[in-house]
Amino acid sequence: MIVVTTWEVPGYRVTSALGLVRGNTIRARNISRDIMASLRNITGGEVVEYTKMAAEAREQSIDRMIEEAEALGADAVIMVRFQTVEMMRGAAEMLCYGTAVKLEPI
Questions:
Q1: Residue 91's CATH number
Q2: How confident is the model over 4-58, as pLDDT tens digits?
Q3: Is the terminal CB of the chain with fewer CB neighbours within 10 Å at N or C?
Q4: Residue 39, pLDDT score
Q5: Is 5 exposed, middle or buried (0-12, 13-18, 19+ CB in 10 A)?
Q6: Cα–Cα dist 22/62, whole Å
């Protein structure tokens, strides 16, 4: 599956748009990550526990978006974007969305 943030895929022509596809996940912090993050906040530097959690959330939301696109028979997802929103204190949604399309080589 081709996944791009642009409205076109080099070497291909979009033959049809199949519609909006999306994938999301909601992640909550946990006490062990919070303790380690607090210690890193004191000493400075990257908070690797939260970096890892955010990366996992992005990958899961992309995977879910691709599953939805594959179910529509898409060759690619174009104009992919990410959005996050805090759902409640300590929990946030990671949303990935784009347009599922059919392609043909130029």
A1: 3.30.110.70
A2: 999 999 999 999 999 999 999 998 866 555 566 666 666 667 778 788 888 999 9
A3: C
A4: 62
A5: exposed
A6: 8
Task: Print the domain residue range for 7.
Answer: 2-105
Q: What token pair was written down for 11?
A: 């070497």
Q: Residue 3 — left, alpha, or beta (φ > 0 → left; ψ -120 to 50 → alpha)?
A: beta
Of 69, 71, 93, nearest in space to 82 by CA: 93
Q: Which helix (H) or strand (E) holds 61?
A: helix 48-71
Specify the number of domains making up the chain: 1
Counting Cα atoms < 13 Å in the Cβ hemisphere of 81 gives 7
In the block, tokens 């974007």 appear at: 81
